Amino acid sequence: MCGIVGYIGNENACDIIIDGLKKLEYRGYDSAGIALYKEGKIQVRKYKGRIANLEEHLKNEVFDSHVGIGHTRWATHGAPSDENAHPHTNGDSTIAIVHNGIIENFVKLREWLETEHQVTFRSETDSEVIAHLIGLYYEGDLLEAVYKATEKMEGAYAIGAIAAAEPDRIVAVRKDSPLVVGLGEDCNFIASDIPALLKHVRKIYLIENNETVLLTKDQVKIFDQNRKEVKREVFHVTWDADAAEKEGYDHFMLKEIHEQPKGIYETLTRRLDESGKIALDGISLSKEDLDRIDKVYIVACGTAYHAGLVGKYAIEKFAHIPVEVDIASEFRYRDPFVNDRTLFIAVSQSGETLDTLAALREAKKKGARILSVVNVVGSSVARESDDVFYTWAGPEIAVASTKAYTTQLVCMYLIALYMAQLKGVIAQEEYRRILEELKAVPDKLREFLKKEKSIEELAKKQYKRESAFFIGRGADVGISYEGSLKLKEVSYINSFAIAAGELKHGTIALIEQDTLVVALATQDQLYDKMLSNIQEVKARGAYVIGIAKASNREIEKQANDVIYIPDCADEVAPLLAVVPLQLLAYYIAKLRGCDIDKPKNLAKSVTVE
Ligand code: M6R
């Protein structure tokens, strides 16, 4: 949820850390702070608000420091405030830490530190206990003190720590919260995510759970749980630093919407062999494995869950295997019927969403085979899965997920078709037809995006709305949920999605004169039914924006406005239909003056329960 950056080297640590934090601001942005070693002391500056506010405070100070740690926060324990911002220090400020995650036993630890060790706390955070614990155990060796402190801690953490008495080292530790180390020339870095480091390094160590890292400017040592040094292969980042920049777009969200044709193309073509067939290299799902599987669970959160809804539709249709789609936070607490005949598909852009990770572990314990669909290479979900199907969306920075979603859909189709073929339940013509349809999507989308202006015009008519409804049938139901989520998270309009056929069972009571209804009618076989649903809401006075395929013009008679997507097979229509909804949400939010890339109360990756 939050962002961590640490630097040790010869350059100005303050500038490097602030710059790195800016790349992570999408992960949390309600307060920011920095701790720097300077002349035998640790200097801490931390403030409520964005990194720009921290910079403003720092602008008249000169920190000639070569070692430091910084943090951008998304509040969990304790409201956003200067006191609750990281870094936190021990009583005499000789130790400073930054922390991502949650210390679950912090109340007990806090009481213990207060009563047994007369510690005075300055914040309401769980993280502050870490600084005091390290301070308590510190006897001139930061690494040793961090080991001892972590033995006391329960929960999830990525921690960076510095000590005033050891200006030549940073110690970092990871359990269930992402942590990477960047390897530079005469300098080294820690960060919670790779984009923070790309300006400086391409060589990365991905730190595993329960590993502790000791960094000096010339050396990085990684130790396992038993304090044994471990060797780690260098991970070379191949994607461009520009991928994490806006490149002339006003917002990352808009840039990422426009990157969808490329993301879809990459995700698709990297999984097709020379004969044009799906080749899931590195995924060891054999026909025998599949014959044993009698049920698929797709488990995820938010937008990734919506991708799962389309996945269910595709797997059941093509591969004839029953699929249940579950919200990760529900799955783990309801004793689901999972065993060694279950294929569990975890879907996650970040691969760090705690609920998804916990659900995965639950399913694994029960014997399920784990396949994950993940965007971030080396993330926790990827590492804990039996097989990983990477999306090739590139780094997604905007909090509102767009290109991750469409690439997740591509994975869903490929998994469904692959399983169908392995099981021998799909005719060759059908298999080829769907693949051809998928291959045509990137170009169709590029053409569609040229007409973006018309959606901006539509947004101008709608941006003052207080509420909106999204309706659809079949595969359009999942798209309705996703369109509705996009609108509410970036524009704060109270929006609601429902299967169109379900409207009349209650929700239609809310439709009145001029209520905005976005009606998805991209499924040919359900088109007439959708037209009836549109009539139903029109009869109650609704203002309807229809989404339909270019050849299906009948809808013009019913809807007030229509957005036409390129003609395509019903099966792949979700890939095209979601894009106008993303654009509508974007332009409405822009007209409302919302902070589109960093919506209030949200963070990019939710690594807490
Ligand atoms: O990183 P993940 O895909 O696991 O994240 C899941 C959700 O938190 C995420 O999709 C969220 O709903 C987005 N803000 C939606 O735009």
Description of the structure:
The protein has 609 residues and is α/β, with parallel strands linked by helices. The chain has 3 domains: 3-238, Aminohydrolase, N-terminal nucleophile (Ntn) domain (Glutamine Phosphoribosylpyrophosphate, subunit 1, domain 1, 4-Layer Sandwich), CATH 3.60.20; 244-449, Glucose-6-phosphate isomerase like protein, domain 1 (Rossmann fold); 452-591, Rossmann fold (3-Layer(aba) Sandwich). 36% of the residues lie in helices and 23% in strands. The chain contains 18 helices and 25 strands. The strands form 4 sheets. It has an 8-stranded antiparallel sheet with strand order 3-2-4-1-10-9-11-15, with helices on one face. It has a 7-stranded antiparallel sheet with strand order 5-6-7-8-12-13-14. α9 (302-319) packs parallel to α13 (403-423), α9 (302-319) runs antiparallel to α16 (475-491) and α13 packs antiparallel against α14 (428-449). The model has no long low-confidence stretch (mean pLDDT 93). The structure holds 5-amino-5-deoxy-1-O-phosphono-D-mannitol (M6R). 5-amino-5-deoxy-1-O-phosphono-D-mannitol (M6R) is lined by residues 301-304, 348-350, 353, 356, 399-401, 485, 489, 602, 605-606.
